[in-house]
Amino acid sequence: MDIEEVFANVAVAFEAIGAFAMVVGFVIAVVLSARSLNRKEGGAQAFSVLRSTLASAILLGLEILVAADLLRTITSKPSVEDALILGLIVVIRTVLSMSIQIELEGVLPWRRAMLTSGGQMIAEAVSRDVAASKNTASGTVAVSKNTAPDNSASTQP
């Protein structure tokens, strides 16, 4: 097995991991949303949880798929056509990732103070769910953090 085959197999593995991350993220988003509804937090909160968690999962999957595309450059034949196709795929996935981040955070990625990956956002959603479950079990009412940005007073172009 030569080095090109190894990198081709690694790229395929990354693609599978990226797709798996999106599927698992979808399941997590549905479960968290259902748990939110079960705690009687309201449909708007459940939708917000579903939307932000699902977007985070897609963002994580896209980041992994871009890594797979970059690995694929190692194994691709050095033709202009292949390079342009691969470059176009990376650009599309990057623009998609940026638009999802802007939708989730309400800020341009280069303007936010702290970089947050899709995986970190999913972990935060799970942490909020665990905290809300503990508060519900102990009988206290938790004020849930709104995960959807309020763009009503935004001054951004």
TrEMBL record:
Membrane-spanning residues: 6-32
Keyword hit for Glycosyltransferase: no
Transmembrane in keyword set: yes
Record's signal peptide: none
Highest taxon above the source species: Bacteria
Region (Disordered) residue spans: 135-157
Keyword entries, A-Z: Membrane, Transmembrane, Transmembrane helix
UniProt xrefs under PANTHER family: SLL0939 PROTEIN
Protein name: DUF1622 domain-containing protein
